[in-house]
């Protein structure tokens, strides 16, 4: 039997929505990283540091508030943001290290 025959319709519908949300998240992350790549290039060209701790603090506070307002665990939101920021900084450091090699 196929999954459609043994799984309740409501569960299938919820899973379909989850799959759509996952796809949207991937597309949004790709767009975010496209923008942060451009930021990394600008920072490298201007000789700016890869990390901006003050902005990061403001972003954490802003996203924790958004999470709270959205009934999402603010600690989870902060961990998620920190994971993304760590990756962005890694990309910026790589860009800065390779700046001017083209």
TrEMBL record:
<dbReference type="Pfam" id="PF01817">
    <property type="entry name" value="CM_2"/>
</dbReference>
<keyword id="KW-0413">Isomerase</keyword>
<dbReference type="InterPro" id="IPR051331">
    <property type="entry name" value="Chorismate_mutase-related"/>
</dbReference>
<dbReference type="InterPro" id="IPR036979">
    <property type="entry name" value="CM_dom_sf"/>
</dbReference>
<dbReference type="InterPro" id="IPR002701">
    <property type="entry name" value="CM_II_prokaryot"/>
</dbReference>
<dbReference type="InterPro" id="IPR036263">
    <property type="entry name" value="Chorismate_II_sf"/>
</dbReference>
<dbReference type="InterPro" id="IPR010951">
    <property type="entry name" value="CM_bact"/>
</dbReference>
<protein>
    <recommendedName>
        <fullName>chorismate mutase</fullName>
        <ecNumber>5.4.99.5</ecNumber>
    </recommendedName>
</protein>
<dbReference type="GO" id="GO:0009697">
    <property type="term" value="P:salicylic acid biosynthetic process"/>
</dbReference>
<feature type="domain" description="Chorismate mutase">
    <location>
        <begin position="5"/>
        <end position="96"/>
    </location>
</feature>
<dbReference type="GO" id="GO:0046417">
    <property type="term" value="P:chorismate metabolic process"/>
</dbReference>
<dbReference type="GO" id="GO:0004106">
    <property type="term" value="F:chorismate mutase activity"/>
</dbReference>
